[in-house]
Amino acid sequence: MDTVAVNNNFKSEEYFINMGPQHPATHGVLRLLLTIDGEIIKKVEPDLGYIHRSIEKMSERDSYQQIVHLTDRMDYLSSHINNEAVCLTVENALELEIPERVKVIRTILGELTRIASHCLWWGVMGMDVGALTTYFYGFRDREMINDIFEETCGARLTMNYNIPGGLMFDIHPNFVKRTKDFIAHFKTKLPEYDTLLTGNVIFQKRMKGVGILTKEDAISFGASGPVGRGSGYSCDVRKHHPYSAYDRVTFKESLKTDGDSLSRYQVRIQEMWESIAIIEQLIDNIPEGEHKVTTKVVIKLPPGEYYQKVETARGELGVYVISTGTKNPYRVKFRSPGFSNLSLLNHIAVGGKIGDLVATMATLDLVIPDIDR
Amino acid sequence: MFSLIMQYWSFIIGLQSPVTNLPSSISGHPSLNITETIQNWLIGTMSEGTANILAMVIVALIYLGIFSVAGLFLVLLERRVAAWFQLRIGPNRVGPLGLLQTMADALKLVSKELTGTVKADKFLYNLAPYFVIVTALMALAVLPFTQGFQAFDVNIGIFFLIAVSSIGVIGILLGGWSSNNKFALIGAMRSGVQTISYELSVGLSLLTMILLTGTLQLSEIIEVQKGGWLIVQGHIPAIIAFMIFMISGTAETNRAPFDMVEAESELGAGFHTEYSGMKFAYFFLAEFINMFIIAAIGATVFFGGWLSPFGITESIPWLGVFWFLGKTFVLIFLMMWFRWTFPRLRVDQLLTLEWKYLLPINLVNIVVMAIVVWLNLIISW
Q: Which ranges of the sequence are coiled-coil (chain A) (predicted)?
């Protein structure tokens, strides 16, 4: 028996299973120590650290340009946005004036990233509740976005397209056309998601009233992103602290108040529609101009503390940098959305069945490297 | 493994009298009775005792052939159907149109090492796959592929099918329990609760149709349907019975959306987590054969089995096989359609569906069917 179990008040009918580190529902190397009575979950203890790579420690060693290349390895489904977060921190600290063109392109790419991430989440979410087909439908649409990314910056997953001061290179001539093509395609395919999964009576039964998180708990656990908004907690960084070009587009913050798995699901579906709306507002009038401002080869931030937060596909990613004026930071801390979202898993999964745990965990949309930095 | 199956087969076929007496209505047509034909052919060349035993062996081999071909084909079909639903191409490289893919898979599975847990109950652990596969094989015996192509036309055909198909759960329970793995144990517990519950609905929905036919013998059930398929004859209660049969049949074979027993996203693989290579393949094969059996029962009881809609097969009995398989595959496709579009239920929802919905509906449906039969509201052409 595991050492953790000995410390618990363990009843004789209860037993203990390890869900993970290798388990299809944990979507990565996350280990959950489950205390179970029959099928009913009594306790969930996440055990982390299986893919820890000391990204924060490595960041202290690296220059500011190099840190950007580490961040897309954290939440690899939101890599554009992660990169943007570090770039914005550095740019704010240096008080660099970024060209409008860069801001708009970053916003478009960020929203494309969000759609791609939600597509994958939707596919995997379906798979977790037993509907395997969703996986392929999600990937069909995500693939088009990845093609756009590949053409834009040569990478499909870990982008490194944002650099402090702008973008690595200008967008590909096909970018606008392909993005428009994708939007046109996706507008016809997104309703398909609802027909296949959302409207399904089994799916509704699996999701409704499962894993309820109240607004108060969402706030106290530090939930962010669709998890917080599914509980009615208005926490969209794009609305409350607009960065890049978010202050010039109109979009709704998708909020649901039920706080159950279905709300979190609906929030993400709604977010995809909003992302489409944002891209549509920006794609036709990308300002002309430079794609970056020239920065020094060795960037040195003025001494002080800097914090910048962005809204990734999973929620609020905060980058906290302490600089002592040298070419590398004294301390870097990432406030990752997945970590606080995982922390509430025990709170909402206890009392449910094993199937509920899997469904609930899927609606938290965990990306393990984001948690295990 | 094969010797064991042989034993079971000899047992089943041994129950039959050497000369099969078909119902007079069927024997009026050109007979295809395979057991009788083989026996008659052998009796001419050797002593009766040897001939009987040899006939059993030959029939057993024929059915083993059907079993393995059907299993391999269904695996391929499922993969192609899945690919079709999932916007993929599916296996299309090995052999023409990928037809040999499952042969290649089977070869791979045969060559795999048979692993297991150290502290497993070795005897039960190894026994479990046989239970599952022998059950599936036994049920094939009474299926009427076409007029006379039925190894064992027993007068309690439907009863036999229900009884035999409920043995499979023992294999799953044994496999899950003896693996000494908690995930497998949860799978086995779920299996027990699920298969035994849904057994009721399968039985009761078939009982509804038996009220209409007045016989348990499969050949006679088909005979009755010469005046119209039972789903037409029994109209509303028959349609309800068919829907319940398909739902509970899917559940009884542990297929999605009722694959609680495996639930790969929850339990890894459930009861067969610890099985590898060919032992795993037996479970897998049995699942597909069970699906075939459920679809075949559905086709036989509700859609006239090997009967064609317009009486074409009356003069050419072999064509009946194609009608039978055609109807069966439509139902199999339906079950595959369920699997590739539906999410999985939760274990308590599964039981709620059975005990709070299907069972009461079923019981009422039987009464309705009784009234239909009593008032002679049967539709026939």
A: none
* Contact: B267, A354; criterion CB under 8 Å: yes
ipTM tops 0.90: no
> And the tokens for B27?
């024997």
User: Which ranges in B86-216 belong to alpha helices (H)?
Assistant: 101-111, 122-140, 157-165, 168-178, 182-213
Asked whether residue A228 is assigned to any structural domain, the reply reads: yes
Query: Which tokens in the block code for residue A19?
Result: 């869900």
Smallest Cα distance from A101 to chain B, Å: 38
Residues of A whose CB is below 8 A from B257? 130, 202
How many other CB atoms are there within 10 angstroms of residue A212's CB atom?
17
Dihedral sign from CA coordinates of B361, B249, A355, B135: positive
Q: Cβ of B86 and A128 within 8 Å?
A: no
Q: What pLDDT shows up at residue A118?
A: 93
Best of A30, A198, A354 to mutate (most B CBs within 10 Å, chain B) = A354
Q: Is there a domain that residue A245 lies in?
A: yes
Residue A13 domain flag: no
What SS3 class is residue A214? coil
| Regions of chain A short of the pLDDT cut 50 | 1-3, 5-6
Nearest-CA neighbor of B260 among B135, B126, B352? Answer: B352
The token duo for B12 is 């089943």
- Model's pTM, two decimal places? 0.85
Structure tokens at B48: 């009766």
Range of the domain at A225: 52-371
The shortest CB-CB distance from B343 to any of A24, A129, A136 is to: A129
* Number of structural domains found in chain A: 1
How does pLDDT run across B24-46, given as a tens digit for each residue? 344 444 445 777 777 777 777 77
Preferred mutation among B185, B259, B266, B356 to probe A, highest tally of A CBs within 10 A:
B266
Of all residues in chain B, the one with the smallest CA distance to A17 is: B182
Assigned domain for A42 exists: no
